[in-house]
Amino acid sequence: MNLPLTKKLGRQSKRLPQFLSLLLFMLLCACTAYWVMQLIKPPLRAVTAPPQAEQAQVDVSLAAGLFGGRGTVTVASNYQLLGVVAAKKDEDSVAILSADGKPAQAVRQGKELLPGTSIKEVHATYVLLSEGGVLKRVMLPEDVRSKSGMVSPAPIPASGRAPAAAPNQDLPPEQPAVPVQDK
User: Fold this and answer.
1) Could you give all domains of the chain from N- to C-terminal order, each with its CATH number?
2) Claim: this prediction has a pTM higher than 0.70
3) DSSP string covering 93-159, please?
4) CB 98 within 8 A of CB 109
5) CA-CA distance, 70 to 123, in Å (whole number)?
6) How far apart are CA 92 and CA 83, in angstroms?
7) pLDDT digits over 49-106, tens only?
8) Reduced to 3 states, what is the DSSP secondary structure of residue 166?
């Protein structure tokens, strides 16, 4: 019984060394390929998320004039209003302004103060400037208002009497600022 088994193994035992050699050669190729890949592998790059595209902020208040609303007016910081001559005719009104710390100059409504900056509206207490199509409000300082004799409206006393008439009542009332589009 033992004999037939060795006969069968005898035929296979001739091919066993060749089979083992093939198996070891394949293992050697796999190990060599692995280490070659490890040595020539490029360095790892840091993975970062793609930058988010910024959404452009749309200022809806700029279109308020189209629908009967009032647009916003920014306050100018590099201009100083030193005086105002508000005439009955708008084109005759004059503002005395100082720009960027320069000496003050009197400028009529509609004329340029600096290149690209013009006076759009002149009111009793403020001036609207158009700087590159953007309206900016320059307020008259409180100390200049008190020197010029402009009086703010007084509250109605509790006794029911009306206050005395304020000076400068012939000045036109202040009108709200409306954005003006340059053509």
Assistant:
1) 73-147 (2.30.30.830)
2) no
3) -EEEEEETTPPPEEEETTSEEETTEEEEEE-SSEEEEEETTEEEEEEPPHHHHHHTT--PPPPPPTT
4) no
5) 17
6) 15
7) 888 877 777 766 667 667 766 555 555 568 888 888 888 887 888 988 888 888 888 9
8) coil
